[in-house]
Amino acid sequence: MDIESMLWPGWQLQWTVDPMDVEDRIGKTAEAVVAMVDSESLEGGGLLLHPALDETLRDLFRRGAFEASPGVTEVVPTLGLLPEKYAIYAFCPLGEPTPKGIRIAAGGIGKAAAGLKVSSMKWNVPSSAVRAIGAGAAAALCAEGLLLGAYRKRTYAGEKRELPTWDLRFVLERKEDGPDWDRGFLTGVHTADAVCYARELTNVPSNRLTPAKFAEEASLLASRYGSLECRIYDEKEAADEGMGGLLAVGQGSANPPRMIVLRYRGNPGSGRTTGLIGKGVTFDAGGISLKPGAGMEEFISDMGGAAAVFGVMRGLALRRIPANVVAVVPAVENMPSGSAYKPGDVIAMYGGKTVEVLNTDAEGRIVLGDGLTTAIREGADELIDVATLTGAVMHALGDVTTGAITNDEALLQAVIRASERAGEYVWPLPAHPEYRRMLRSSVADLKNHGGAWGGAIAGGLFIGSFAEERPWVHLDIGGTAWMWEDRDLEPKGGTGVMVRTLLEYLQGVSEAES
Ligand code: BES
Ligand code: MN
Ligand code: ZN
Questions:
Q1: How many percent of the chain have pLDDT more than 70?
Q2: At 414, which CATH number?
Q3: Each residue of 136-184: pLDDT tens digit?
Q4: 291 is catalytic
Q5: Are residues 416 and 469 in the same domain?
Q6: Is the CB of 449 inside a 6 Å radius of any atom of ligand 1?
Q7: Is the pLDDT of residue 85 over 60?
Q8: In this structure, which ligand is nearest to the CA of 476?
Q9: Is 359 close to ligand 1, i.e. is its CB under 6 Å away?
Q10: Ligand 1 close to Cβ of residue 288 (< 6 A)
Q11: Residue 274's closest CA among 420, 418, 388?
């Protein structure tokens, strides 16, 4: 398999871990040397990298030009004072190091390295971080932060994806920490790779990622990682199956829909299978209920949920997490045309229910309904869907927090705890039975649009009505899947949000089972 043919080739990395006392063993000089600093070391006089360079940093700090806040870095050219060309100082609260503080500081280092176009670095690891949270965990955070911070969306000028080959050398205080650091760093690299894959997929323009292309990518992913299996339903097979929701939304586009199924059997001994369903609307023009033109280009990201699910599958395979997962992605383009579905249509869903269409722009819930049914027929015992489902969730939670709805409090709590470990934000929306009235139709089992208020809840509950009593959590990433500006670890464009949370959740499931 030629991995170049996949949309994200993956980070190329090599690294060594050395204790302080063998620092000079390796002859090769890195392009940059990294030191993590905190307020104490900025105010004090101890050696960081080199007296003259350290004094430059402290001078900048005293005059307020180097801000002591997480993610901030200062690059000082070494001008021959050190073998490396650049010194990268990264602020990190080291007195009480937190996972978030380390991840964000590493993200700043990644950004600085990407800006300098250096990829070989010697990184002096502060022992307080290793002591506070353990070498393995600290290393995983450094890898995640570094690579997520360094990620840039690709340009099609030149048509070739340019990625650095990283060459890293960690200097640890204690030799005994080396093996844990090594293992933890590899885990973090795999996690970051999964997130960057999701970002890359999200950023692909919709003419280059049609539903058929998306399905091809799934089969490339499966052949790249032997532990994944792939099954695609094209539009004919979907029709034979009766996937009426998928077909209705897809019928307006010249690019026919696909139902994509990816399977990962990491724990054959367990009977439990988690279903992950990702909204794969490769472009959402709104259909006949056409969206306004301004900013419509953002809706290439309406497959952000599907991208997250693809990222999770890649992460499961890379990290070899012992869990069983069936991933389902309804991939479809929502377009207005002479063949498009229309307001007033009544469609027959895969699961047997009928839906009255009131707004063709509420298409995600329709394809996800068929997605949930597919996951159930593929043997899922519990269901988690990820979707850029509503703009309404952004009114409630902004672009910071993912909204969640559930029919099973325990499953939701497990997902929220996972999000906390992963450093992502998930917040529950209420799902009281009274909200279901919004979806009552006089001509069908359900209508797809609940009215002006509580849109994120109505959309979520619509999807949940296809869960067939299985524990289910819906994650609405309508506000969090796409950034218009860079922010901390997230560059402009697709964020890959929820990949880390879901990997953490599945890792937790596997630990509970063993
Ligand atoms: N994909 C959109 C939701 C969305 C909007 C995500 C903006 C991110 C940013 C979804 O398909 C949609 O159009 N939802 C409508 C639902 C409405 C018609 C009930 C919305 O949120 O306006
Ligand atoms: Mn829409
Ligand atoms: Zn949509």
A1: 97
A2: 3.40.630.10
A3: 999 999 999 999 999 999 999 886 787 888 999 999 989 899 999 999 9
A4: yes
A5: yes
A6: yes
A7: yes
A8: 1
A9: yes
A10: no
A11: 418
